[in-house]
Automatic annotation (TrEMBL), chain A:
GO MF, one example: ATP binding
Originating species: Streptomyces coffeae
Protein name as catalogued: ABC transporter ATP-binding protein
SMART domains membership: AAA
ABC transporter domain mapped to chain residues: 11-235
Pfam families linked: ABC_tran
Keyword Hydrolase in record: no
Keyword Plastid: no
SUPFAM superfamilies membership: P-loop containing nucleoside triphosphate hydrolases
Keywords attached to this entry: ATP-binding, Nucleotide-binding, Transport
Amino acid sequence: MSDDNDGSGALEAAGLGKKYRRGWALRDVTFRLPAGRICAMVGPNGSGKSTLLALAADLLTPTTGTLRIFGEAPSAPTTRERIAYVAQEKPLYPRFSVADTLRMGASLNPHWDQTAAERVVDEAEVPLSTRIGSLSGGRRTCVALAVALGKRARLLLLDEPMSDQDPVRRRRMMGVLMAEAAERGTTVVISTHVLAELDGVCDYLLLIGDGRIRLAGDSEAIQSAHRLITGARDGSGIDAHTVVERRTTGRQLTALVRPTSPVGDDWIVREPSLEEVLLGYLRSPEAPPLVTASARPVAEDGAP
Amino acid sequence: MTALSRDVPRDRARRTTRTGGANGVTWLVRRQYRTMFCTGAALVVAIAGYIVWQRFAMTGYLRDHGIAGCADWKATCHGEPIPDGRGESPVGDAFFHISDVYRPRILATGRVLLALPALFGVFVGAPLVARELENGTHKLVWTQSVSRTRWLTAQLALPLAAVLTGSALLSALYTWWWRTARATTLTDIAWGTTVPFDASGPAAVALTALSFLLGTAIGLVVARTLPAMVVTFGAIAGVVYGLAALRPHLMPTRTMVSDADGHFGRTPQHVFYTSWRGMADGYLTRTGEKVPGDLCSGADSSSAMHRCFARLGATGRGYVEYHPASHFWPLQWIQAGICLAAAAALTVFCLWWIRRRPSGRATA
């Protein structure tokens, strides 16, 4: 956090696109993640979350646009030390013991923190002498997380880190992760397709659908930009606002909107939960995207 | 003195942090190939032990039977005549014994040694990167602080250094064994053929390096372990066949010419028996032009062959192209040079490919 005074975000994408042989996985992705945030990257399977993280980890190169990590390209040697990445399939060497795996982390990284890595492994109750190949999926993920945390990176890129964890271990792992992140001001990006996983943990949100950004910004700003309104079925006056989703139940109409002006008195208005906002967008792929001020690249901010 | 003793540890501490990464990759490679290294070392020691044992058993026999330093194509051995047939004298039978016992052992060992580079290329070279790409562990190692160039350099250098040491030891011992045997008897073993040539001297070591790099490069491009292994095996077999076809032409051959009745009596015996013959032979015309023997290989009877050669103007004067014994080491080094150059080119290719890989798809 201390050397983030140059104003560049932890992660900044401009016109980022990635095309595979079968088509575009990401298109025209532009956003900025300020340093020190815990960012939830949400989206259905195959929406491009893994591609975005792999681009940041320099395992892929963009087809279009650029991606900057603390102002530098993902391929820069300094960036390699600054990021830690856990791939979705949590690859580790199956014949290594847990201790060997941490030793590998120590020998490949100049700022290795053995204590931090061992804390994660302890928390997951994985003995150091166990072979990786004999661990359950959830425990193996913990070892992968331990390697990522031991690296002492400034940006953690975690691709579905909690998908194979039972609820108890998930809470514990998130606890360790958040404590480490808070202590060092680490920026964290966690991709997931299970919203409940990140409830109350993240303060930043990135919703990706079909390779495009649909929501980006402070979770609070996103939440407060929306209203859940209920009223008569004919829904007069609703089109004055940006409608994300509308549903009718009986004689009632419920809609998730981004109000452009005060909502009229003939509606019951309340602020939706973050999960309600996300669900609304996930159910309506055509809803217009929203990028809050803090998620806009710096250059764009300066423009009139 | 105090200043000195204070400076030294500080300097050392700084150096360990700076080179920590490089040592680190070394540790990783050592850990990854621990089992394979032990297996390989055991194999090398076993084969080396066998060769040393056989070589000493053979020279012991030569000494005990008074034929050490003799050659069976000479007329006499330490003053005793060497007969042509079996059972005529103990000296003659001693030569036959060496030939009967050690000829199959030397050729079989040579085939085993020839298989080693192929095994190494297929089982170490091909999976080296292919397995990482297949299992996704490249996503783990390539996202650590060490660059993938340095990672690959260590992945290539360490196994290569280990195996070249083993290969150098085995090929030296093997060369030492068969050349002693061939100097005594076994003169019909063409030393320029794949066995023993590719299992001997610097050529064997360079072939090992080439096989490994071939496997790694194929694994890097194919990115799947089993197909990479299969392709590598085919590629190494192709290299060995290619080298066998190329070898006679690496140096200009010499030609020995017979009398008008087909006897090569004019050629000194030691030249004849120590040379590598068999790459080309035939008959000369009256004007000295060569009529290669394979022009008439289609003839199905000796009279048909006579008519064929007569039609081509051949006389009874035969010729044989050969590489003299003095060509053995130059040919070894030339072939080694070719293999090492190819291995170096493949190394450059691998290092280039691994840096290029993330941008594998064209930018639109």
